[in-house]
Amino acid sequence: QVQLVESGGDSVQAGGSLRLSCAVSEFTQSRYCMAWFRRAPGKGREGVAVIDPEGWTHVADSVKGRFTISQDNAKTLFLQMDNLKAEDTGMYYCATRLDVYWCALNTEYYNNWGQGTQVTVSS
Description:
Blueprint: E1 4-7, E2 11-13, E3 18-24, E4 32-39, E5 45-51, E6 57-59, E7 67-71, E8 77-81, E9 90-98, E10 112-113, E11 117-122
Parallel strand pairs: 2-11
Antiparallel strand pairs: 1-3, 3-8, 4-5, 4-9, 5-6, 7-8, 9-10, 9-11
């Protein structure tokens, strides 16, 4: 079982920036997907961004141009969030699925989840 631990959540003003991190316990599989999801108050979990081992990324339309997903050699996952808006408020989760050859941005696809980190944006 892969362990995921998010950090970096905070309270910021609209227009500000945050960088979320997700530390991932070691795994040996070379094929995997890693993604960020969020859950706004009173809403379901939605996909934010996904990345594969080759660096292919996909970002949800709601955050395109403002959020960037990346990972380092240690497979730590990052989400750079710029020009934050009040509607970006929510709990942010990282997720991964191993031994796969294509990636998706839907919650049902992932079987390893972190506990989440809270992002609050005030207008």
